Amino acid sequence: MLNRRNFLTAAVGVVAASGLAACAKEDDSSTGTSTSGGKKITLGFSQVGSESGWRSANTDSVKAAAKEAGYTLKFSDAQQKQENQISALRSYIAQKVDVIAFSPVVVTGWDAILKEAKAAKIPVVLTDRSVESDESLFVTLVGSDFTDEGRRAAKILEKVLETAGHKGKVKIAQLEGTTGAAPAIERAKGFKEIMDAEHKDDWEIVVTQTGDFTRAGGKQVMAAFLQSDPDINVLYAHNDDMGLGAIQAIEAAGKKPGKDILIVTVDGVKDGFIAMSEGKINAIVECNPLLGPQLMEVVQKVKDGETVERWIKTEESDFMQDQAKDALPTRKY
Ligand code: GYE
User: How many domains does the structure of the chain reveal?
Assistant: First the structure.
């Protein structure tokens, strides 16, 4: 996986990408145009699934940006299954697309298929999520710093506790994203880092389990959490959708979300902002899904043989409840 350290070294030496970029260059050199050999660029894109509001916004952004750029987009939805993504990538290789982009559902298990793409001289761009594999097998990652989002979640929880005038132990329930997915691993890691360094004595994660980034998962797991530990007073959900599902479980248990249980989520989709403006979510760490335009730009550069940074990061903000009403009308997703 890319982390801050290897991001810096990679940004200095894009050597790993140059082999792939060089083959892209050969294709284009005969035409001198920004398209592939004078014809439209064909992009094969394998999406994780349609598990959340974030994902729907991301899919819409990718489709709209491909259209705007004039690319032929081959799109497939893997329904959160790695084997479906591997088959999609294999089919894009067989169809000899110009570039493959994908958002890997989990971090491991990609080396073999990425080697097939490399052997076929098809550059691969990761988008949204990263992989743990040989870094020479992909050109770049266009997406967020999830570890930092975890840290930001812990820092904003400090503010939430202060605003609520909370005294005493902080008993945290954590709803994790899909097991083995970069945002689940890294959002947990960043949060824990701050918790261990600054709140060892008063904060504790009393229950933690995956809700698979879905509303239904968040609801079901939160209901079980509340039964196993009725003293939970904070929920940290790795995305808004699980937080929204959990709110239903909290209300069904006769408690007030945002008051009896303080809630911090990640993403910042419209439904999350609505819940926050109703007082049910206390703070949101934004993760921007509108990656389409940046992705298309990178695809073009890769086809043109230009070097690109190893990690093209997304800019994001954090929001407290008192900002929700003002921010809501201008939210784009
Ligand atoms: O936070 C979640 C989605 O990978 C950043 O996946 C993405 C995450 C996002 O299902 O809502």
Answer: 2
pTM of the predicted model, to two decimals?
0.90
Q: Write out pLDDT tens, residues 291-316.
A: 999 999 999 999 999 999 999 999 99
**Smallest Cα–Cα separation from 145: which of 198, 189, 180, 211?**
189
Distance between Cα 176 and ligand 1 center (Å): 11
Residues 90 and 61: beta-carbon distance below 8 Å: no
Cβ neighbours of residue 17 closer than 8 Å, sequence gap 6 or more: 123, 139, 140, 307, 308, 310
Could you tell me the CA-to-CA distances from 231 to 156, 174, 280 in Å, in that order? 21, 14, 18
Percent of the chain topping pLDDT 90 = 88
Among 47, 48, 55, 106, say which to mutate for ligand 1: greatest number of ligand atoms within 8 Å of CB: 55
- pLDDT at residue 39, as a whole number: 76
In a domain, 8, yes or no: no
Ligand 1, atom 8: closest residue by C-alpha: 183
Q: Which residues are near ligand 1 (CB < 6 Å)?
A: 51-52, 54-55, 128-129, 183, 213, 239, 241, 266-267, 287
Amino acid at 92: Y
CATH number at residue 32: 3.40.50.2300
Q: Are residues 275 and 151 in the same domain?
A: yes
